[in-house]
């Protein structure tokens, strides 16, 4: 069997690594196609190295651009590779432009698509990610939903065939790397941070960074934080802060350390040792609950509602008063802190990657890994 993996951004590399590993352990050689949506060393190559992935077979060097430019260029380049390599299945993960491009290019060549982390919905169609998820799910033959709730979202849209609830591969990634991070990372010393005495911040989503008004609100929140904080910053956010004239202002916040994005081992260590995490990232909302760290999400909705229901995550948007109210409660009310920190992980047991490989191998063996003419027969 020949599985092709199409990926291009930081979270896709992290979340597909356990699946790639599972295939290799079963003596199946994966074909690795990197679109180049992320290209800086610290947004891509550092993860390929740390997660010890085999060499990339095709680097497509798509790079940055408008939504259509990036997606279109990725589609054209992916199609070329798929036509030449004729894989048995194309795996994509998540909701980026790379995912949409990979799914569309493959299904139109009648190569079945397997979507890892299928069925997530924020129910906010103004987000590029929501459009990508919906379309990728509808182009897919095999849908690996991380939770029952994600499976139900698919059912609501008429997708019932080929759906498997397997857990989220982020649990595999955390379990496979947390102990290594503990041993190898000296990140706390490098930034002079004390365990549980700082807040870890990340924010990069278009809705938070592309408007001057929202980015200013983010800076105002950071200016009001009641304790030390560290913010490994996505290049998108840095560019926008400079563009909107906010770069000097954010850098003059006394309690805040801004750094370039960090590798996975350093970042896991920072997450695990944080007092709390504030983020708009999908993957980091998941990792917080896995690592027992309270999470305040800088968004008004989430496609990870399981984390909120479990009690480990609170949506605070960009509302300064709301952020401060919850941070102060976390600082002053130990019972509240422990309740958030000990919220149960809804994303499975860390064997999602193995399940995905097993299911695809079995479908292939039975000759069932193909594009069906209709989902409804
Ligand atoms: C993309 C995903 C988002 C995901 C994020 C993961 C889409 C629509 N969005 O957002 O869902 O959460 O990846 O991190 O696919 N840039 C660099 N160096 C890089 C990569 C990007 O400088 O290596 C800068 C460029 O100025 C670029 C901007 O960041 O224009 C945005 O990059 P892009 O890949 O378009 O989207 P992300 O914000 O990374
Ligand atoms: N991450 C990292 N270094 C950083 C920031 C994030 O290794 O400086 C990891 C994080 O642990 C998580 C993933 O990147 O696994 C999340 O990626 P991101 O926030 O870019 O994307 P999203 O999950 O929102 O799509």
UniProtKB/TrEMBL annotation:
Classification via Pfam families: Epimerase_2
Domain of life: Archaea
Record-annotated UDP-N-acetylglucosamine 2-epimerase domain positions: 27-360
SUPFAM superfamilies, per the entry: UDP-Glycosyltransferase/glycogen phosphorylase
InterPro entries with a match to the protein in the record: UDP_GlcNAc_Epimerase_2_dom, WecB-like
Protein name: UDP-N-acetyl glucosamine 2-epimerase
């Amino acid at each position: 069997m020949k599985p092709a993996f199409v990926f291009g951004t930081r979270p896709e590399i992290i979340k597909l690594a356990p699946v790639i590993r599972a295939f290799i352990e079963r003596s199946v050689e994966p074909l690795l196609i990197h679109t180049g949506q992320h290209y800086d060393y610290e947004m891509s190559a550092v993860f390929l190295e740390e997660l010890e992935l085999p060499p990339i077979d095709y680097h497509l060097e798509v790079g940055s651009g408008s939504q259509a430019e990036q997606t279109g260029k990725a589609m054209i380049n992916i199609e070329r590779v798929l036509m030449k390599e004729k894989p048995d299945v194309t795996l994509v993960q998540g909701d980026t432009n790379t995912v949409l491009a990979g799914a569309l290019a493959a299904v139109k060549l009648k190569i079945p698509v397997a979507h890892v982390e299928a069925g997530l919905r924020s129910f906010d169609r103004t987000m590029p990610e929501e459009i990508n998820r919906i379309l990728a799910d509808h182009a897919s033959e095999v849908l690996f939903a991380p939770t029952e709730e994600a499976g139900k979202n698919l059912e609501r849209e008429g997708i019932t065939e080929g759906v498997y609830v397997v857990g989220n591969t982020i649990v595999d990634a955390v379990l496979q790397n947390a102990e290594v991070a503990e041993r190898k990372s000296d990140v706390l010393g490098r930034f002079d941070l004390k365990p549980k005495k700082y807040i870890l911040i990340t924010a990069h989503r278009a809705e938070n960074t592309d408007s001057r008004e929202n980015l200013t609100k983010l800076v105002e929140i950071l200016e009001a934080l009641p304790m030390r904080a560290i913010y490994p910053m996505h290049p998108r956010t840095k560019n926008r802060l400079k563009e909107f004239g906010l770069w000097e202002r954010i850098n003059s916040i006394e309690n805040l350390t801004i750094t370039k994005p960090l590798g996975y081992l350093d970042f896991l260590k920072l997450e695990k040792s944080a007092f709390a995490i504030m983020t708009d990232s999908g993957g980091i909302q998941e990792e917080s609950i896995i690592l027992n760290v309270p999470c305040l999400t800088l968004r008004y909705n989430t496609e990870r509602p399981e984390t909120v229901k479990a009690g480990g995550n609170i949506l605070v948007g960009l509302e300064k008063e709301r952020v401060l109210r919850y941070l102060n409660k976390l600082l002053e009310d130990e019972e509240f802190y422990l309740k958030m920190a000990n919220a149960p992980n809804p994303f499975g047991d860390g064997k999602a990657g193995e399940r995905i490989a097993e299911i695809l191998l079995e479908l292939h063996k039975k000759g069932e890994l193909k594009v069906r003419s209709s989902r409804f027969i």
